[in-house]
Amino acid sequence: MHGLFQDIRFALRTLRKSPAFTAVALITLGMGIGINTAVFTVTNAALFNGFPIVKDNSRILYITNRIVSYPDFEDWRTQAKSFAGMAATQGLFKFVSESSDAPEIYSGTPVTVNTFQVLGVNPQLGRDFTTTDGVPGASPVTILSYELWERRFGKDPTVIGRNLQLNGIPTAVIGVMPARFAFPQKQDLWLPIVPTSDVLRRDRPFLMLAVARIADGVEIENARTEIETIGQRLQSQYPRPNQSVPEAKTFNERFIGAGATTLYKAMFGAVGFVLLIACANVANLMLARTLNRSREISVRLSLGAGRWRLTRQLLVESVLLSSVGGVLGWWIAKTAVRVYVLLQRSDYWFADAVGAAMDYRVFGYVAAISIGTGFLFGLAPVFRVLRLDVNNALKNGGPGAFGGRNGKNLSALLIAGEVAFAVVLIGGAGVMIRSFMNIYNADVGARTENVLSAYVALPSDRYPNGDAQTSFADRLKSRLEALPSIESVAFGIAPTETPGRSPYEIAEAPTVDEQSRPVTFVSTASPGYFRTLGVPLLSGRDFNDFDRESSLPVVIVNERFASRNWPGENAVGKRLRLFRDGQSPAWLAVVGVVSNVSLGDATRQQFDPIVYVPLRQKPTGGLGILARTRVPPENLTLPFQLELHAVDSRLPYQHLAPLKAWMARVGGTYELTRNIAVLFLVFGASALLLASVGLYAVVSYSVSRSTQEIGIRTALGAAPGDIRRFVFRQVLLPLCLGIGAGLTASLGVNHFIKTELVRVSPTDPAVLLTSAIVLALAAALGCWLPARRAMRVSPTVALKSE
Questions:
Q1: What does the alpha-carbon distance between residue 314 and residue 285 come to, in Å, rounded to a whole number?
Q2: Residues 360-413: pLDDT tens digits?
Q3: Domains in the chain: boundaries
Q4: Edge-to-edge, what's the strand order for the sheet holding 451-457?
């Protein structure tokens, strides 16, 4: 132990004597370890941690089905024996609060009263739901999120027992959940599901998601099999509502998905390359430093120090250096994670999960890779010490003491390796960025520039029926269109948002059973919706003010729907019916066909069949507002607020923003792809920087070691160009080998993200060639500076240098 402390003290003195070397090595290691740790934090939160605060996420399954009724859920819960508890959520709803002069829209989820017990989370303040809260006739109650409690009520503990007006219904606050808790997504409050007679109808789609905690001693696959068996039994007993077998998924499968998992794993692999480049850089620096210390090491060996004793000393220096680099990396990682969280959507629970993920596991990971990298890059100088020629070193202390050519070969190998890793990273970043740009620039079928969008929820107490809802829409439209800067106003869903789906049937088509009916997107639209979005009307007419509940029910279909169901025919005048809400559907006449618009596809490449229903015939309490403007839409946010306040001063709004900005937020896959494309760009830039710095350091060292040779060449008449070529030749071979190996590796590595790329090949020759050229230019810059210095060497000074 005493010898170890002695080695540490000696290492500290040695590193302190070489401040430039120590600073460069620490910054390089800090970048490599910091970026690696930040991505580990994000990846760990996404793939393994699950919902923040929830107890034992790995023992929870999430059960979904195409159509789930409350009786189906009760059958799952009573018949399944593999679970310690099962709960359910109904979905995310909007609630208008009027508890103060500043009304807000709250997002809330009805849940079964045992939901928080199944998740293993208790309210931080107040109480949990009880069975009496979930019986018909019980007084309405709610539990608030910590964030709503903090934002709206200033963390006032007396909020317990206070009534909130939620959609005009007095609802008592009974509890507040802990900070960062979010389930099944980030929201403001939870309410108990009350199984009324309407809820208990087996033919009524009701539940969105069931959550089940696996009992102790039960394997996940056995629990899956049991749920599927119960689903098959219910399918045979009640075929109409059970059109598919329920799927029991882990957190990763349900909320992350295979595509995102692939991207996160690719991202984690990419930062592994960044760390290896950093290690190669420091290994080259350590190797060069060890060569400079050849006389010192030889003297110590001649005085009786063993080679393994010196090996331990060098490894202690390496590990000490990497440990300090790990401390710097921890700080870099914390900063990077904080920035990543800020870039996430404020209403996305994953941001909180990442923010809470820098715990003891991450600290242990930092410690492990810090020590591991110390041993890894410390092997290069150790290898040279074990081959040291003591006699040669005592004579001249030159690189020949270490077997000069072998030392150069090892250095060249390290250069080739980091160049190869850098090419792979830059190539991966290139295809990811090009894929995202294909999404960003995709034609969604609508003109989205100069459109202002917003959402309002109409509370049922003041807008109880379709007449009241359409009357509000008419008044708001009139006031907004009176503004000189607004061209037109309409109500409907924004492009790339996901509307509801419905089975449908075509008149005069062969009758099929319920389970075989095709399904289509169904979206509500007001008159002028297509004109406001610039969607061409291909045939027929648009909706108008005469399309009311009392008139002939009509629809407009998109080109994809028309060509699928009436190929080669005019769809106008055809009839169809939609099977929604468990009602006996009426036949709907097609009055128009419009161009395709991308809905429900975050990649913006897919155009699905869509049926548009007129707003006056299918009124809704949630209105998406779209206003085409003559000026930049962000300039009209204040006038919009004033006009909305003039129509109803107690009505809150959400998502008031230019349509293009809102579209960038509504697609989860779009946002994930954007974030990971940016991260790959950061990784590629880091790899480029580290590789350039590494090349510069190696060439600079080589120039300093070759000062005498350069002087002799200059004295013998070598021109500056000859000296420049002499310097560049020293890295030309490893650079070419590294670029070749990197391009070859990219052909295989990029295939891991092939399924997540949009309209770009993982082996895109333009991207790979560009990555090679960029790295070659960076390498040229890294070599040019030392070469410039070498061309200025005075022959007289050089010949005296040794």
A1: 13
A2: 778 888 888 888 888 877 776 666 655 555 555 445 554 444 445 555 677 778
A3: 2-47+259-440+670-800, 62-254, 459-650
A4: 486-491, 622-629, 451-457, 653-658
